[in-house]
C-alpha cells in the first residue's frame, strides 16, 4: 500500500473487506509500506485482486515470518493488527439523495464494499443496533434544512426537500422537523455510547453536536419551523452534551450559509495551490487506533471545501484527538474521540477530490483518483471496527 507499488489503493480496501467476508482473517500491517494488508495466499484472493486491478506481492512462509518478527520489534514503529470480521455498514441518508451526493457512498461503491441505507424511521425504531459502523450523510440535524434558505429558498429542489422532511416528521408523530432530528440525534448518541462507531463528514459533524447541545431549546427561525426561536437561545446551549465541540457561537441569521463558529470556511485565507493538511504520526504499538485511522501513502493530504470545511481548534474539547490539521490556519480537519464504549470520527469537507463542490456539480469519477489519500482516510474508518480489540496496556 505504499505510493509506488499499489495501482488501486481504494480497491485494495475492498479486497480486504471481501476477504473478511469469506471468514478469513487479515493482518493490517500498520506503518509498513503505507499500511499494507497481509492476507492468505489463495487462488480465490489472487483472482479477485487481478479482476479488480489491485497490486499484490506473494511472500513465502519464511519471508512472512521474518516480516512479522521485524514488525513486532520494539525498535520499529509498526504493528500487525488482526482484522477478524467484515463490519456491517449503514449510511444514514434520505431516499431522495443519489449516491454521488456523498463521498462515503461513492468510495464504498468504487471499492465494492456493501452497505445499507437507513434514515429517520429506522433510527427511531432502534435498528442501529444491527450495524457495526454508521456514516452520517451531509445532513442538517438542527432542523434548519441545511441553511440553504438564503440562496435556494425559491429553488424547486429546496422546496421539495423541505416538504418531504416535514411530511416525514409528521408521519413520525412530530410537529417540527427539528424535534424529529433532535430525537434522531439522541438515538445516534446512544448508539455510539453503547459501543457503535460513527463516522461523519461536512455539515453532519457540527450540526449533530449543535443538535445535542440545543436539546430542549428552539434555535430555528420562523421560516424553518413556523414559530420564533427562543429568546437568547445562545445562553441556553449545553456544551456538556456534545461529542467534540465547546464554547461555539451559533449563527442566528437564516440567510447565512453557516451553522456556527465551529466551521472555518469563512475564516480561511489559504490559496488553493497550498491548501493541504498534515496527518499526525502515532506510535503503532501504543496508539494503534489513531495509527489505523491515519494509514496512508503520504502524510500530506490535499484540502477540500464543504459547508463545514474544518474546525476551529479553539472550540475543540480537550479529549478530542486531532489527527489531521492545517497549522497555518489553526484548523483541525480530521478528528477522533471516544464516547462511552464507542468511537466517533469527524472529517471536514464534502469531497476529497472535488475542491469546491457546489449544488448541481457533476459527480466525482473515482476511476480518475484510484490512489486518493483523502478517500483512503474514509476507508481506514470503514475497516476499523474489524480490528481485534486488545486489552489496554497499563
Straight-line N-to-C gap: 32 Å
Please report the total strand number as a whole number: 13
The major sheet is characterized as: 10 strands, mixed
Strand content: 5-15%
Radius of gyration: 21 Å
Helical/strand content category? alpha/beta
CATH class of the largest domain: Alpha Beta
Q: Write down the secondary-structure element order.
A: HEEHHEEHEHEHHHEHHEHEEEEEH
List keywords for this structure.
394 residues; alpha/beta; Rossmann fold; 10-stranded mixed beta sheet; 12 helices
Please tell me about this protein's structure:
The protein has 394 residues and is of the alpha/beta class. The chain is built from twelve helices and 13 strands. The chain has helices at 9-21, 43-52, 61-72, 103-111, 120-124, 149-152, 156-171, 177-193, 203-213, 222-225, 288-293, 373-383; strands at 26-30, 36-38, 79-83, 89-92, 116-118, 133-136, 197-201, 276-279, 300-302, 311-312, 321-326, 331-339, 342-347. The strands form two sheets. Strands 4, 5, 6, 7, 8, 9, 10, 11, 12 and 13 form a ten-stranded mixed sheet that branches. Helix 1 packs antiparallel against helix 2 (43-52), helix 1 crosses helix 4 and helix 1 packs parallel to helix 12 (373-383). It is globular, with a radius of gyration of 21 Å. 45% of the residues are buried. The mean pLDDT is 95. It comes from Dokdonia pacifica. This is Asparagine synthetase B.
Amino acid at each position: 500500500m505504499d505510493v509506488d507499488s499499489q495501482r488501486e489503493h481504494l480497491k485494495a480496501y475492498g479486497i480486504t473487506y471481501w476477504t473478511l467476508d469469506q471468514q478469513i482473517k487479515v493482518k493490517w500491517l500498520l506503518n509498513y509500506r503505507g499500511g499494507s494488508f497481509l492476507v492468505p495466499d489463495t487462488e480465490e484472493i489472487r483472482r479477485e485482486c487481478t479482476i479488480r486491478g489491485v497490486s499484490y506481492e506473494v511472500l513465502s512462509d519464511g519471508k512472512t515470518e521474518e516480516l512479522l518478527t521485524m514488525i513486532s520489534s520494539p525498535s520499529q514503529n509498526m504493528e500487525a493488527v488482526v482484522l477478524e470480521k467484515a463490519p456491517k455498514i449503514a449510511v444514514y441518508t434520505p431516499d431522495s439523495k443519489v449516491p454521488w451526493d456523498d463521498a462515503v457512498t461513492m468510495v464504498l461503491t468504487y471499492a465494492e464494499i456493501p452497505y445499507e441505507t437507513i434514515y429517520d424511521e429506522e433510527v427511531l425504531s432502534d435498528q442501529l443496533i444491527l450495524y457495526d459502523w454508521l456514516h452520517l450523510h451531509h445532513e442538517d440535524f438542527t432542523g434548519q434544512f441545511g441553511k440553504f434558505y438564503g440562496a435556494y429558498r425559491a429553488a424547486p429542489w429546496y422546496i421539495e426537500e423541505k416538504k418531504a422532511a416535514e411530511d416525514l416528521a409528521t408521519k413520525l408523530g412530530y410537529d417540527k422537523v427539528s424535534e424529529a432530528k433532535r430525537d434522531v440525534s439522541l438515538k445516534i448518541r446512544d448508539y455510539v455510547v453503547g459501543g457503535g462507531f460513527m463516522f461523519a463528514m461536512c455539515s453532519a459533524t457540527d450540526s449533530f453536536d449543535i443538535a445535542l447541545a440545543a436539546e430542549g431549546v428552539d434555535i430555528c427561525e420562523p421560516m424553518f419551523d413556523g414559530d420564533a426561536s427562543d429568546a437568547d437561545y445562545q445562553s441556553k446551549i449545553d456544551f456538556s452534551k456534545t461529542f467534540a465541540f465547546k464554547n461555539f457561537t451559533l449563527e442566528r441569521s437564516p440567510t447565512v450559509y453557516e451553522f456556527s463558529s465551529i466551521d472555518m470556511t469563512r475564516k480561511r485565507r489559504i490559496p488553493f495551490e497550498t491548501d493541504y493538511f498534515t496527518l499526525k504520526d502515532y506510535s503503532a504499538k501504543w496508539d494503534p487506533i489513531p495509527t489505523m485511522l491515519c494509514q496512508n501513502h503520504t502524510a500530506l493530504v490535499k484540502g477540500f471545501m464543504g459547508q463545514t470545511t474544518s474546525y476551529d481548534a479553539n472550540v475543540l474539547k480537550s479529549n478530542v484527538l486531532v489527527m489531521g490539521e492545517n497549522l497555518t490556519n489553526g484548523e483541525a480537519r480530521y478528528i477522533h474521540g471516544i464516547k462511552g464504549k464507542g468511537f466517533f470520527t469527524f472529517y471536514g469537507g464534502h469531497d476529497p477530490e472535488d475542491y469546491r463542490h457546489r449544488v448541481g456539480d457533476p459527480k466525482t469519477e473515482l476511476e480518475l483518483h484510484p490512489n486518493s489519500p483523502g478517500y483512503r482516510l474514509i476507508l481506514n474508518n470503514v475497516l476499523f471496527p474489524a480490528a481485534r480489540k486488545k486489552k489496554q496496556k497499563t
